[in-house]
Amino acid sequence: VVTRRDARSSSRQLRPSWTNRIQISFSAANFFFGKKPQVLLNNIPALKEMDIRVLVYLRRQDHFLESLYAQLAKFRLIGSVEEFLRDRNHAAPNYLKILDTWKLAASQVIPVVFEGELLIGNDLIQDFMTRIGYANIMADMKIAKRANRLVNALRLQILQEFFRAGFSQVPRRERSKLEAVLDETSHEPAPRMRREDREKVLENASAINKAICQQYLPLQDQLFSSDLTADPSKQATGELSDEQLAELRHVIALIKNG
Questions:
Q1: Which range, of 7-16, 53-62, 65-74, averages the lowest pLDDT?
Q2: pTM score > 0.85 for this model?
Q3: CA distance 41 to 48
Q4: 168-206 burial by CB neighbour count: b if 16+ within 10 A, else e?
């Protein structure tokens, strides 16, 4: 991840005279969330003399929102998956706007569909390394099988109940007890949206996805697979029953009141 400090450090080391002889790769998720190309270019002026190509991995919007929910729900109150989607009116991220923003600062913007069967070697890292010209070193790389595991539905549900009661985090005294229970459910699935919510998100994204194909991927009829059969209509496994939820809320109230 490129931070401001990293950028300034890189700027000091990167000399304009090198720009025709080296390849530099930056990977940062925060470029996606509203960061403008100028943030990078202004912090590393030498990049302005280089041929900049932007490689963007696009995840089907319903899958992106599931992942975004799992990340946000770890840190603040956003409710259930259904509440999260309802609050944003099932709006999908505008990938076209993001691509067009970076197109203004780069010689080439390359969208890549983030679906396993379309990735080189069916693997994200292998696909990325191959596209930037480092496929030959893949055999020597040691890559964790699951470096960024999603938090399962039960853990998020418990966290959300603590946030709902006004806690900023699970109290330390109760945390170890909960961890012992939650470790036993680590195999449970991450939260998934209902089929009808999934369809609403994709319907809202359809015009954007069509425009991306027309402008960036003219050889593709559609941006993402529209097959929803592989996605569960709703995975309730690992979530609390109504009785368990009521009991959890009672326990949290007792903790809050000392």
A1: 7-16
A2: no
A3: 6
A4: eebeeeeeeeeeeebeeeeeebbbbbeeebbebbbeebe
